[in-house]
Structure formats: C-alpha cells, structure tokens
Request: fold
Amino acid sequence: MLEVNDLKVHLDTDSGIVKAVDGVSFTVEAGKTIGIVGESGSGKSVLAMSLTQLNPQPPAFYPQGEILFEGKNVLKRTKKDLRKIRGNDIAMIFQDPMSSLNPVFNIGDQIKEAIRTHDKKMSRQDVEKKVIELLTDVGIPDPKRRINDYPHQFSGGMRQRVLIAIALACKPKLLIADEPTTALDVTIQAQILELMKDIQKKYGTAIIIITHDLGVVANIADKILVMYAGRIVEEGSVHDIFYRTSMPYTWSLLRSLPRLDIDESERLLTIKGQPPDLIHPPEGCKFNPRCPFVSPECLKMDPPLTERGSNHRAACILSNEQFEEAKQALIIAERKGVHS
Amino acid sequence: MLQYTIRRFISVIPVMFIVSVIVFLLVHLTPGNPAYLILGEDSSQESIKQLEQQLGLDKPIVVQFFDWIKNILTGDLGQSIYSSEPVTQVIFDRFGPTFSLMLLSLIFILVISIPIAIFVVAMRKTILDPIFLTISLLGVSIPEFWFAILLVLAFGVTFPIFPVAGYAPIAEGVFSWLYYLILPAFVLAAVEVGLIARMLRDGMLESINQDYTRTVRAKGVRESTVLMKHVFANALIPTTTVVGTAVAGLLGGTVIIETLFTIPGIGQLLIDSIYRRDYPVIQGVVLIISAIYVLINLLVDLLYAFLDPRIRYD
Reply:
C-alpha cells in the first residue's frame, strides 16, 4: 500500500544542509503495523511528516526518492491532491496532545472539521452522530456532553484520544502515530496503545508508530525499523530485533531499556556519546564514534543493509556470528570490570 | 462566564474611586487659590470670597470631597463657570462628535489592519514581510498632528476632495457626516493601524507553527482556512488587548485631532475649558474620559473571555 524508495529528506538551514532522512526504503502493507524506532534526532519525525509532505518547505526538500501511496508518488502530487490524501487516506497523530488541539475551538468542532473537509455533503445530523460514534470508539465517556467541551477541559490522555478520533474521522487507510505516548503517564501509555490495537482491528487501518521506546513497539508492531542518523540500520520482526539483534546500535538500544528481571545493583546502561551531527555526519558507518565494536574498516565504508534471515536485514560489517562473538567478549569484559 | 463578568464589574469600583479622588484633587493641587485664578488678578476680595462660597471651597476638604462624590453619584457634575450650564449638559452636547470620530477610527483600524495582517502572513516568505515591517514602524513613529497636516494639504488643498475642517452631525445625513469625518478619523486611525497590524501579524506567525496548526493541516484543510480560521482566532487573543489600549489611545488623540479639524467634541471642550479656567468642566471631562477608559478596558476583558475559552471557564 505504501512503498518508500530510497527517500531523502534534507533541511536547508542557516548552518548547513541537515540530512534528516538519507536514503530510506520500506513498505507498509494494508492492516499491518510497523514501528520506527530511534533516538531523538534520528530523523524519524521528519520521515513521518514527509509521508504526507507536512514538513514546511522550505526548509525541507526532497532531493531523491519516491513515496508511492497506492501506486502514485506522493512527492509529485499537486497541493490539492495532497489535501485529499491528508486526513482522508493517511492520518496522523502527534507527540504532544496538550498542544495539538486548537485551544479556542471545542473538540466537537475540531472533529467535525476533519469529517467536513473530506465529505461536504454529509448532513449536519449525520456529522454529529459520527462525532459521537468516534468519541465512543476512542473511549471518551459521556461523549454527547463532552462534545461541546474545550481542549483545556480534558486531560492529556483524553486529548490524545480526541486526536485519535480526529485521525479516524475519515477511516484512513494508514495512521501515522509520531511518538503518540511519549508525553503521557505510563498507565495512560498502555491504554492508548491498547486503543490503537482495538482501532486497527475495527477499522483495518495500517499503522506506522514512531517512537524512541522499543518497549512501546514490542507489543504492537509486525515489523520494526531501527533508524540511526537518517538511515535504517536494522529491520525485522519483533522477534528478530529483540532476540536476533544484528546491529550494535539496536543492541545498545535494547541494553538501555530498564528491566525488572535484572539485579538492581546493575546500572542502567546508556549509549555513550551524542547522536551524530546530521550536517557533517561521521565518515563511514554513522554509528562508528559510539560503537563498542568499532574497527578501522568502519571508518572507511558505510555498510549497506544485508540479509540476516528471512525479512531481517541489518547494516553492519560484522556477520551475525562475528557480532555474537564480539558481544560475548564485551559482556565478559564488563563483568570482570565490575567484579575486580 | 457570569461570575467572571460580575468579578470584572466589581473590580471597576475601586479604580473609579481612585480616579475620582485624583480628579477632585485636580483643583486643590493647582497652586494658588482657584477662585482667584478663575476670576483673574484684578478681582476684588469680595468677589473671590463669593466664588469660593459658590464652589464650596470654604468648607473643610473632606467635606468637600464627600459632597463631590455625592453629587457625582446623583449625576451632578456642577455648573460651568463660563456658561452657567450644568456640566453634564455641556459634556453631553459635545459627546456626539467625539464618539463619531472614535467609532469611525476604530472601523478604519480594523478594516485596514486585519486584511493587511492576513495578507502579509500569507506572503510571509516573500520580500513583502520586511517591507511591511518598515511601513508599520513608520506608521507607529509618525506624529499624528504632522500626518494630519500632510493629509489636509493633500486631500483638502491640493486635491480638494474632503473639507479641511468642520463637522456635521449625523442628523444632517450620513453622507455629510462621513464627508467631514473621513479625513480626521483616518489620521486618528493611521497611528494605530501599524501597531495593530503588526501585533496581529506577530500573533499569527506565532500560531502558524504551533502543534495545533499542524493537526489542522494533517486533516487536509486548505491553507487559507488554516490561516483565516485557526491561526487568526488564536492571534486575536493577544491583539484584543492592544486594540483596547489603542481605542483608549484614540481618546487622547481626539484632543489633538478635534483641535486641528475644529470638531466640536470633548477634546476641544477640554482645551477650551483649560483656557477659560472652567474648573468644573475640566473636572467633568477628565472624569468622563477616565470612566470611558476604564469602561473600554472592562469591555476588552469581557471580549477576552469571549475569545478564549480558557478564561471563560476559569
């Protein structure tokens, strides 16, 4: 349904060209969920916005690649065509529900606008009914009364539900959720993820969920893409990513997840260093300055994605066996360091 | 909303009390004996005594103050020394022109600055924006009396389209009323247009990159609707405050403009009364102007609540 081929999205800023997305390819099948995971600044939000060309242009521009939605290149569509896609075929929800609703209009009007934009003929009563239906679907209690309330009268979790209702208003084929739970309490996070799963079952929507938290996608995604410095460095099923990790960056991300089953005396691991400067990215593999397994060769060439199993690909010069050995060696060395 | 309105109304009371104290003291803080000042150097001791009695200046100051408050509350602002008419009547007679002038100015301000701001924001990535900024700065900086003289020269003398001075009440017909008022109202508006268009532009540019605007765009709403509905509605909130102070500022401007265009309004009355040392009228006018000022601010506060639900439901 959605096919992204070798997409580059660059930002023309005062300090230089930021290569936010630098050659990314992936596909999304109808009704499936894919998770895009990466640190802040890895280009994942820019990627998400570019799928409906929501990034302001300038500074954003598209030097290369194509985004095929149902066979047609989104990048070549007219503004009018794009408006028909936005909200209707591809809907989005964003990171911060507290600021994503217009404070001066009530939520009923904001949902109605989403319906009206793509269906001007629907009668007033039908629109009203639809809004209440949507609010019920996203789990807002007493929707008939709350329809006239303003955003500030809702909690963060409830606002995210309203935003999901807006996104679902036209039964989109694809829902892009950019960090949908990051700004929410942990308990609310789980509820919102649960809601997204239910929605997918009911509406058959494909979902792209973008997050920095591998834990968020573990339960919900059919496929995970790991992004680093504007590129995909590993892709595969949840099982592949968690248990057959083939790329040092993914492994470091996994090790930095807080866990309950590990002795509390062990410190939470962090990935050393900063995400790379996307104006002047490092030579060779972009992860090399932070990689625990760096070798001289990593500074020379940027490895392409290679097959690591069925539908599992990773970008690292180490083969799976070499990586396994290196990992064991590192863990042993670390243990020694702790005990001595 | 009702509670908010009541609270706002109550807050006006102490403000007006303080204003009345200051206006009352106006006469008493003026150096010298007011009766003496009014009557002039050559007046006899007797006539000064008589006037003092007439003005109540011989009573203790506290008694005078409460008399004055009591009179205000019953709608009695005293008598004009110059014309012996009640001050309320004098002010009432002059109210029409000033109100007309302010109303037309306000209409000019809104009708000119709103489309300009929207247009400039829509063209924000072009050369138009810096040009607008320069012109608006110029508009704010130009002294209104100078601009008035310039316009009178242009449209009253070189191209005699509008009258140079004078006033026709609306009772004589809307057309002649407008005919006399357009030039002075435009001058009065000009200074504020730059400021308000600038505020609106800034407000819109701030709102245009907010998360909620992105949500609206993601719905597939056309950009013109995004601007004129969502962005504009949010920019109106900060702008309303400035419109309020601008309208209050118009009051001050009318003093100059009415004198320049010989419009028989409150501003001219004030100037005339100062020349005539007509203290009761001066006090009355200052009190009325302050009251209007406070009233406009009250209106702005209420309008604010109307525009911003976050205030309405507090």
In short: The interface with chain A takes residues 125, 209-222, 230, 233-234, 237, 307-310, 313 of chain B (CB under 8 Å). The CA atoms of residues 87 and 164 of chain B lie 30 Å apart.
